[in-house]
UniProtKB/TrEMBL annotation:
<feature type="region of interest" description="Disordered">
    <location>
        <begin position="346"/>
        <end position="366"/>
    </location>
</feature>
<comment type="pathway">
    <text>Ketone degradation; acetoin degradation.</text>
</comment>
<feature type="domain" description="Histone deacetylase">
    <location>
        <begin position="21"/>
        <end position="315"/>
    </location>
</feature>
<comment type="similarity">
    <text>Belongs to the histone deacetylase family.</text>
</comment>
<dbReference type="InterPro" id="IPR023801">
    <property type="entry name" value="His_deacetylse_dom"/>
</dbReference>
<protein>
    <recommendedName>
        <fullName>Acetoin utilization protein AcuC</fullName>
    </recommendedName>
</protein>
<dbReference type="InterPro" id="IPR003085">
    <property type="entry name" value="AcuC"/>
</dbReference>
<keyword id="KW-0006">Acetoin catabolism</keyword>
<dbReference type="InterPro" id="IPR000286">
    <property type="entry name" value="HDACs"/>
</dbReference>
<dbReference type="InterPro" id="IPR023696">
    <property type="entry name" value="Ureohydrolase_dom_sf"/>
</dbReference>
<dbReference type="Pfam" id="PF00850">
    <property type="entry name" value="Hist_deacetyl"/>
</dbReference>
<dbReference type="InterPro" id="IPR037138">
    <property type="entry name" value="His_deacetylse_dom_sf"/>
</dbReference>
Length: 393
């Protein structure tokens, strides 16, 4: 296996543009620009790969043919309705099929590079459209690139794939696609569905018949900060991954859990997000011989948060993490100010936060985070042969 890291990138990925909409492609543009200015993309062993659009044979591994036809037709039909398209969340836009298929192709290219041993890790920061359903657009997502990439890995011979979703929203589309498939473990940490779209992701969602324990959900109360998030992550994710023994780790790394994100209510920092990326890499190294496919996802603080968070992700995936105290390069600050005038452009790669945490223990007076941890462990751990009360599991 090569020790290289593949970064799948081309400016054509910015064509996934819904117009005046929270999912603004400028966040991806500024991420790549920041990573480039920091020298991340020029590191030894980093290979930039230009994506090709996924064809229908690949897309229909997850999506219904009638839905593909609808996505193609919608931009030409001013009266089009249905399939979740044409809503405020999922507006119809020119080139919708082509740009969506390209994002899928990019994540599939990342997955293929890792599985075939061309690279140990691969990243598509434009990907992570985890809400799309087989026959319906949802939550800003037209096609579900992580799900198609996982399906492709299964076709290539993978027998155990772990998908870990750290977006603030539940990874409902990926969970739904693999609900009945015991070869795929879906793990999602997210703000409670009682407070946030899509309204799913409760602990008792554990997989379909014959696949019980293949879905793991860790809903967290609003306001959780780095300390609570890290405590929950480490109380759940390492244990379930070790029990499952995946051959490859696929992760969706949405940055919308940040305290500045306008669409959610968690209180994370880029320092906490960086710590999560380091933990994911360590788990891939421990369990999957380093095989890690990472995507972007949500994140709507377009200048203030997303470029820094995903530049940290790219740094972790390609080698040494970036020192949080690093200054953002002046050329990038000028670009960010020009692309989004009036936004506060961060001067450093840190929020001056300490993401350290106290490991979960099943004793003492539980707070809201510990009650959520206990609920998830009690529900799903026995299905994986784990003791929900033993902190070693």
């Amino acid at each position: 296996m090569s020790d290289d890291t593949v970064v799948v990138w081309d400016e054509s990925l910015l064509a996934y543009d819904m117009g005046d909409h929270p999912l603004d492609p400028v966040r991806v543009e500024l991420t790549v620009a920041l990573a480039r200015e920091l020298g991340i993309l020029d590191r030894p062993g980093v290979r930039l790969v230009k994506p090709e659009p996924a064809d229908d044979a690949l897309l229909t591994r997850v999506h219904d043919p009638a839905y593909l036809a609808a996505v193609r037709a919608a931009p030409r039909d001013p009266l089009f309705a249905g399939y979740g398209l044409g809503t405020s969340d999922n507006p119809i836009f020119d080139g919708m099929h082509e740009s969506s298929a390209l994002i899928v192709g990019a994540t599939v290219a990342a997955a293929e590079a890792v599985w075939r041993g061309d690279a140990r890790r691969a990243v598509n920061v434009a990907g992570g459209l985890h809400h799309a359903m087989p026959a319906r657009a949802s939550g800003f997502c037209v096609y579900n690139d992580p799900a198609v990439a996982i399906a492709r890995l299964l076709d290539l011979g993978a027998e155990r794939i772990a998908y870990v979703d750290v977006d603030v929203h539940h990874g409902d589309g990926v969970q739904q696609v693999f609900w009945d498939d015991p070869r795929v473990l879906t793990v999602s940490l997210h703000e409670t569905p009682l407070a946030l779209f899509p309204g799913t992701g409760f602990p008792d969602e554990t997989g379909g018949p014959g696949a019980q324990g293949s879905a793991v959900n860790m809903p967290l109360p609003p306001g959780v900060d780095d300390t609570g998030w890290q405590r929950a992550f480490h109380a759940i994710v390492p244990s379930v991954l070790r029990a499952f023994r995946p051959q490859v780790l696929v992760s969706q790394c949405g940055a919308d859990g940040h305290r500045l994100d306008p669409l959610a209510d968690l209180n994370l920092t880029v320092d906490g997000q960086r710590a999560t990326y380091l933990a994911l890499r360590a788990l891939a190294d421990e369990l999957c011989d380093g095989r890690w496919v990472a995507t972007g996802g949500g994140g709507y603080a377009l200048v203030e948060v997303v470029p820094r968070a995903w530049s940290h992700l790219l740094a972790v995936a390609t080698g040494d993490p970036i020192d949080p105290a690093t200054l953002t390069p002046s050329a990038w600050r000028e670009l960010a100010a020009a692309r989004r005038p009036g936004r506060e452009v961060p001067l450093r790669m840190t929020d001056d936060a300490d993401p350290s945490y106290t490991p979960w223990q099943p004793t003492g007076e539980p707070n809201a985070v510990d009650r959520a941890i206990a609920a998830t462990r009690k529900t799903v751990f026995p299905l994986l042969g784990l003791d929900p009360h033993d902190p070693r599991d």
